[in-house]
Known about the structure:
Helix content: 25-40%
Structural class: alpha/beta
CATH topology of the largest domain: Dihydrodipicolinate Reductase, domain 2
Strand order of the largest sheet: 14-13-12-11-7-10-9-8-15
Number of strands: 15
Strand content: 15-25%
Bound molecules: 6-O-phosphono-beta-D-glucopyranose
Number of helices: 15
Amino acid sequence: xxxxxxxxxxxxxxxxxxxxxxxxxxxxxxxxxxxxxxxxxxxxxxxxxxxxxxxxxxxxxxxxxxxxxxxxxxxxxxxxxxxxxxxxxxxxxxxxxxxxxxxxxxxxxxxxxxxxxxxxxxxxxxxxxxxxxxxxxxxxxxxxxxxxxxxxxxxxxxxxxxxxxxxxxxxxxxxxxxxxxxxxxxxxxxxxxxxxxxxxxxxxxxxxxxxxxxxxxxxxxxxxxxxxxxxxxxxxxxxxxxxxxxxxxxxxxxxxxxxxxxxxxxxxxxxxxxxxxxxxxxxxxxxxxxxxxxxxxxxxxxxxxxxxxxxxxxxxxxxxxxxxxxxxxxxxxxxxxxxxxxxxxxxxxxxxxxxxxxxxxxxxxxxxxxxxxxxxxxxxxxxxxxxxxxxxxxxxxxxxxxxxxxxxxxxxxxxxxxxxxxxxxxxxxxxxxxxxxxxxxxxxxxxxxxxxxxxxxxxxxxxxxxxxxxxxxxxxxxxxxx
Length: 482
Ligand code: BG6
């Protein structure tokens, strides 16, 4: 295995993301020797922790994540961790940080390589990027930066943040995280489409009637009401995860599977993205909030949520392209909190053709992303002892053991960062288009808000608002998953 030398600086080292995801993932990469003797991590955050205390936190994070670990591995791993209490606005702190990075670089022979990781509240991203540039924190080797979501709140703020980051980093060194791109079945969309002649040959508007993406969650907004009020379901889930999934489904086959070819194919597709008109928005989009007769489950009763909030916790809508294999095919999406169950899936609904048996089911291809990783295809056959059509599903799935051993999405993505593979990260050209689309909807909703008392409501732990059943283009369409 390769052993990549680098000093990693994590902004938000005491945070939840670092604790739950980054430290366990780094530990696994360490056990695989991808990072080993020549790496060190500097955690920064406001709290005045010592190196020792920080290492205990990292060790705890690993024990919480893994059932069984070799204690020696954990101990050795933790010796690579250093902590610096850091105020993101203080020039001096960046100077100290730079010196510490240099000192560790010498000690670990890290060859001037730096990995910066923005894992704190997004409002600080721009400030940190600006200081990285002004206090010249970049090293003499490779310099990469990982940026968590959300990347801006609309196109204007995303552009501003991008300017601040590109002052020190080239586009190919910026790794904008979308954790859905680390999910096994999202990474399976391209192989499914391009390695199966059976599927490749029907992946077009002659055969596909529509595509339906559902990202449903059982949980409400929990303790994140403050953030969620500034976001809503459209920005939180559609701007990133749903759009990346759609792009993988609708793009042309890339010339090869290199990062640049994949991003090129995405870009070409997105150039033909149809920005919805007001009429489209009225007909094919729905937003709503969870609320029940029992108010304890109501969004507007959540902590840090305004009593008269018009923030949507559910959104459904339609995406279309003017080019590519799915030209003019409706791609419907819906996502919401407090649904019946956690379920992330893609249903590809094929057109019917006439057949001599009367009724036949449509051949649906379903890609289930969570909770199970599997693909199934609906087939028609004969009923055994009576006339008529019987329906069966062909299933492609991972075994329970494979599922249990599946590397966490973050581990895969961090590995990609260390190996310099940006295939599964969001390129600026994609992000820009996503925001253009989202901004159009947000602008329309802002206008509409002046005229409405409240958003449509939906009962918790069911299938969302009934209004979402009427977003389709034709009366013969309906949600396959219900
Ligand atoms: C995050 C959103 O990006 O994705 C959360 O901010 C959401 O609101 C989460 O709960 C869902 O991710 P997953 O992997 O649980 O489907």
